[in-house]
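RECORD TYPE: inverse folding
INPUT: structure tokens
STRUCTURE:
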């Protein structure tokens, strides 16, 4: 097994600490980046957003990505007048995506299955608090209540609970934000570059 640095557009030099921390119970900004499809947990995320509205949580949710559910969910946002939810579609420009990570308080990834997704690396580099399911390779890096909050697969209630915990505890938000960034910096700085790893493997 040869550990290598993930092939992502974002790297150590893109790391940025948050400066937009909130006072507890102020509006909280949520972000999802990925395929807009059932297996990514987008439907649970939308239902959780509806629950958060009912529970009086002041938030915004931006969903970035394309997929089979995109148009259906856009229609639902209009029909149900969810002014705090935006489906932005695919975004390929690095600078534009970076700004979204930097403006978000919490990156929500309720995915049903993964390897280790590049979007987690991108979000952690920008010091987002991470709320994620523990599937695939995710638990090898993410530790519950140390550098992230854990979501249960297919459970919108766990999304609601995670958002409320961050929304109402500014000190916890800051601690998880910093821990996420330190985790990914350690990961990227300690792993071998892909070309170097292959070269060393060929030599041996």
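DESIGNED SEQUENCE:
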């Amino acid at each position: 097994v040869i550990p290598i640095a993930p092939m992502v557009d974002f790297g150590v030099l893109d790391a940025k600490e948050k400066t937009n921390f909130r006072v507890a119970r102020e509006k909280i900004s949520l972000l999802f980046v990925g395929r807009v499809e059932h297996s990514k947990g987008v439907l649970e995320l939308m239902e959780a957003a509806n629950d958060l509205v009912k529970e009086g949580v002041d938030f915004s949710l931006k969903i970035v990505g394309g997929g089979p559910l995109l148009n259906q969910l856009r229609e639902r946002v209009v029909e149900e007048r969810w002014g705090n939810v935006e489906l932005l579609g695919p975004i390929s420009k690095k600078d534009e995506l970076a700004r979204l990570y930097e403006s978000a308080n919490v990156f929500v990834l309720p995915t049903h299955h993964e390897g280790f997704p590049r979007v987690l690396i991108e979000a952690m580099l920008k010091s987002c608090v991470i709320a994620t399911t523990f599937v695939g390779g995710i638990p090898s890096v993410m530790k519950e209540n140390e550098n992230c909050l854990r979501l249960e697969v297919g459970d919108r209630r766990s999304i609601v609970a995670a958002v409320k915990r961050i929304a109402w505890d500014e000190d916890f938000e800051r601690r998880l934000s910093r821990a996420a960034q330190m985790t990914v910096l350690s990961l990227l700085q300690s792993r071998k570059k892909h070309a170097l790893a292959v070269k060393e493997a060929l030599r041996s």
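NOTES: The CA atoms of residues 148 and 184 lie 12 Å apart.
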